[in-house]
Amino acid sequence: SSAIPTLAAADADALLSPIALAVATASPKLLDPALDALFRLLSRNILFFHLQTINASSDNKDKNNNDNSDGNSNSLASQLVDSLCKCCSIKDETIVLFAMKVLLAAVRSPIVVFRGDCLNHIVKTCYNVYLGRLSPATQICAKAVLAQMMLIVFARVEE
Q1: Whole-prediction pTM
Q2: How far apart are CA 54 and CA 49, in angstroms?
Q3: Which of 5, 17, 32, 74 is deepest in the core (most CB within 10 A)?
């Protein structure tokens, strides 16, 4: 199945690949519109994927335990999540806050499912932002994002 349910898998990958490349560059000029596009896709429940394991490098075999039979869509989704998490180590506070906003939108989305190592990676990223940033405003935002993520995860576990 496709990362965008209304499109064929190849078309969805063609649309998401430029966004994934822009996020992977870690260039603030490219990140801002890419993060905005991802946020809009996630908050409007347009993206769909189920990830359990992050494939941090392209050398790894597809280790995703997922419901989708299309490995490419999940590989792209895995790259997106990994790149988003790496964005949180950029010095630009605005980009870090935006990346955390996108991660929260992804966790909040009812049609995007994170489990296992993938969810752990996202939570660790927010926790590291909370611990590692000098800006009190960024720390407060990271703490709030982390709290919201935990509430969402535990609410889903109880369902």
Answers
A1: 0.84
A2: 13
A3: 74
